[in-house]
Amino acid sequence: MNAPLSSKPQAAQFMAAANPGPVASFVRFVVFGGGIGVLSSLAVPLVAVTMPWALANAVITVVSTLLCTELHARFTFGTGRRAGWREHWQSAGSATAAYLATCAAMFVLHAVQSSPSMLTEQIVYLGASALAGIGRFVVLRLYVFAAGRKRTTTVTWSLRPGTIGTGDVVAAVA
User: Fold this and answer.
1) Which terminus, N or C, of the chain has the lesser number of Cβ atoms within 10 Å?
2) Nearest of 23, 37, 25 to residue 130 by alpha carbon
3) What angle, 0 to 180 degrees and rounded to 10, lies between the N-to-C axes of helices 118-139 and 22-47?
């Protein structure tokens, strides 16, 4: 029986797919995030039949944020693994910042123009959402799911005179 071919080309191909470039990541971010957003907008009224609308919106928002974080970890930014607690909290933080940015944009609109038309509101809201989404993409790509970022722990032991057998442990995460 012949020896199997080297798996290096396959590994290199997998790594290229696992670490997509910025354009591919952005397209995936829009498709996954936008797709989940559309599904969420359909789910809220359905869930609101069984509970108050604000609670239904909160529940769907939490579930969709968790789902998007998993999709972004595995596919959008190609980590090849599930998102951990750190990624979930940071993603939720970036989603909260995006929410606050769109709220601020609408607040400013209504402060400047007391009765804006629905078209004006949609333009401002969608514009703010787009800018917030781009900002969120940048934060997720460069910080939360940064490719090549290594998390290492360094432990340094030092024995000082008079403390034989004990040591000071200093851990640093790089």
Assistant:
1) N
2) 37
3) 130
